[in-house]
Amino acid sequence: MNAAKIHPGLRALLLSVSLVVAPSLQAAPQAAPVPAVLTPGQAAFMQAEARRIEENFIQKVMSITGATHAQVVRAIPAKGRLTDRLARIYSFLERDLNAPLTDEQQALIYAADGERKQALKDLPAQAAAK
Fold first, then answer.
1. How many CB atoms lie within 10 A of CB 74?
2. For 48-70, b where at least 16 C-beta lie within 10 A, e where not — what string?
3. At what angle do helices 85-97 and 40-65 cross, to 10 degrees?
């Protein structure tokens, strides 16, 4: 179609639609889809691995800070709480240990939490492959 023959109002409409639609067509490619429904075995695997990942995080925090298992578990906010997870962990451990955490300890806990998050993020794909 010749652009010169298009009504000016229609041309403006087409231009505005193309500006809205074009960016959505260039979206980043999606990761491999994970099935919406897991088999009972896959669901059990995910639950067990999630517990193992969380326990591994607790053990790392214990070794970094010298806190007991119970102290670290109390410091971790309940799932679904609207709070900064790391800030709560730092403040609860500092209170329980009666000493401020060093910058190095905070950095190590931050790194351990990053590993925990990445492992939990990768978990659905691992379960789907089982």
1. 14
2. ebeeebeeebbebbeebbebeee
3. 40
Report the alpha-carbon distance of residue 87 to residue 81 in Å, rounded. Answer: 13
116 in helix, strand or coil? helix
Cβ neighbours around 105 below 10 Å, total: 17
12: pLDDT confidence band, cut at 50, 70 and 90? Answer: low
What would the DSSP string read from start to end of 49-89?
HHHHHHHHHHHHHHHHH---HHHHHHHSPPTT--S-HHHHH
CA separation (Å) from 74 to 60, 78, 90? 15, 9, 11
Torsion angle, alpha carbons of 96, 71, 123, 40, to 10: -150
The rounded distance, in Å, linking the Cα atoms of 51 and 11 is 58
Q: Which residue has the higher pLDDT, 87 or 11?
A: 87
